[in-house]
Design goal:
The protein is mainly alpha-helical and about 70 residues long. It has three helices and two strands, in the order H-E-H-H-E. It is elongated and about 40 Å long.
């Protein structure tokens, strides 16, 4: 399946496929130069996308959530 981290419909399909015990989130953007050129893209993915994913986890009863960043 292909989708974006901030796409509630795509996340609902993923979470609807079966019980999920935990989520490891590594979908952030990390390039400083690009973040200055396109700050709204970085906000949409890194801030809003993480919030949408975490909200979906909470609404589905997923209590194990790991955020990992190499930046």
């Amino acid at each position: 399946m292909v989708g974006e981290i901030h796409d509630r419909t795509a996340l609902a399909r993923v979470f609807g496929d079966g019980p999920i015990e935990g989520v490891v989130h590594v979908a952030g953007l990390k390039y400083a130069g690009e973040s200055v050129k396109h700050p709204s893209d970085y906000y949409r993915v890194n801030v809003d996308g993480t919030r949408v994913l975490y909200d979906e986890c909470l609404s589905r009863g997923v209590r194990r959530f790991v955020f990992s960043s190499s930046a």
